[in-house]
């Protein structure tokens, strides 16, 4: 039995509500379609369709099987088109999730340019600072700024690395003094990010080695822009990526401190389910991100 042909025949019968319409769509006889579906039912050992002289409808099992088959056939078609390079323009819907601060500050204008470049592609974009499982929550791709998880079901594609800086408002430094060594941070009010894998520990590396400091302060948040605002108001010292505080450092509303010590860079990655690897829309989106957030963007936010 040609199971793929039988599955295609079954889905056409359900989609068109009968054998005659399905046969017309497939360009074969009604009896050929009926035979393919019967062979499929016999192979599976279940009844997939309710048949009467007036109408054909899927059984409860048949409906569940139909939904899975439609998804499988769509993935198969997309894989065939991607491999053969016949489908050069991405189509359909691309569901993307990204962190809040990076999303509002940098991804939003990038998405607008991406859509202008691919007008036939629809996008659904959500911003969320928690880790999102793209498989469980139905995303085609997620952007993360952290050490990516190791999962056999996910492809992790590095986009770029970004610098972080320890900074504070001039008013705070005037009032409390400027720390000269990382260990002095233990006695300061530090504004720290709530979703760091290291918790409230900041790691800084200098000529005298690596220092891991447990910081504490009045504010912990899972949003970098909130920490930035608190730092500007003089509420404490923050460790933030330059894509959030780059302009503030240029304008002087925040001042970089502990310049002899560097926190590790963090990675911007795009993650997607392994079954999307051949997807044209994922390929063009990933290529766009690499170009958009490459060296020229990094040099701009580091100024």
What would your notes on this structure say?
Helix 1 crosses helix 4. Strand 3, helix 5 and strand 4 form a beta-alpha-beta unit. This protein starts with a helix and ends with a helix. The strands form four sheets. Strands 4-3-5-14-6 form a five-stranded mixed beta sheet, covered by helices on one side. 28% of the residues are buried. The mean pLDDT is 86. The protein has 303 residues and is of the alpha/beta class.
Please outline the helices and strands.
Elements: H1 3-16, H2 19-26, H3 30-44, E1 49-51, E2 56-58, H4 60-84, E3 92-98, H5 100-117, E4 121-127, H6 134-137, E5 141-145, E6 154-162, E7 164-168, H7 170-176, E8 190-193, E9 201-206, E10 209-214, E11 220-221, H8 224-232, E12 237-241, H9 242-251, E13 255-256, E14 266-273, H10 280-292, H11 295-302
Parallel strand pairs: 3-4, 3-5, 8-11, 8-12
Antiparallel strand pairs: 1-2, 5-14, 6-14, 7-12, 7-13, 9-10
Mean pLDDT metric:
86
Radius of gyration: 27 Å
- Oligomer, anyone? single chain
Largest sheet composition: 5 strands, mixed
Strand line-up in the sheet with most strands: 4-3-5-14-6
Straight-line N-to-C gap: 65 Å
Write down the overall geometry.
Answer: elongated
SSE order in H/E notation?
HHHEEHEHEHEEEHEEEEHEHEEHH
Number of strands: 14
Q: Beta-strand level of the residues, as a percent range?
A: 15-25%
Name the structural class: alpha/beta
* Fraction in helix: 40-55%
